[in-house]
Amino acid sequence: MPTQYALTDYAERKALDAVFNDSARTYEVALFTVTPTETTSGTEVSTNNTGYERKTVTFSSAATVSSTTKVSNESTITFGAATSNWGTVTGAAVFDDDGNMLVFGNFESGPVTVSTGNKVEIAAGALTITLD
Asked: Tens digit of pLDDT per residue, the chain (132 long)?
């Protein structure tokens, strides 16, 4: 008898949509200079006279392609322009409107140093959350 079970693609789509496409909720993306982990809260970019604020994000409906089920941001997310240095931004996290962190991760292309006048953009489809 199996001792470990896996979600079907159908169940993965239902799970991702339940978490990231709940019409009663709004979702925000936050940037971090120390990326959170499952056990630490990380260090979010300061909002004190920096021009930084969290940005609202809308996710696509969950879809399965080549056995990977995912949701991703539907449009470009733009932070800035920075009114003062933000430091080295290492990653991002998604929060629901109750302030619960849902997912976190480092930037795939590596950290980004954000100086006065710079923007940080996450292209449409680049913030991808997967189950497989």
From this structure: 667 888 999 999 999 999 999 999 999 999 999 999 999 999 999 999 999 999 999 999 999 999 899 999 999 999 989 999 999 999 999 999 999 999 999 999 999 999 999 999 999 999 999 998
At 95, the amino acid letter reads F
Contacts of 48 (CB under 8 A, 6+ apart): none
Contacts of 89 (CB under 8 A, 6+ apart): 31, 32, 33, 45, 107, 111, 112, 113, 114, 120
- 1 by Cβ neighbours in 10 Å (0-12 / 13-18 / 19+) ranks as exposed
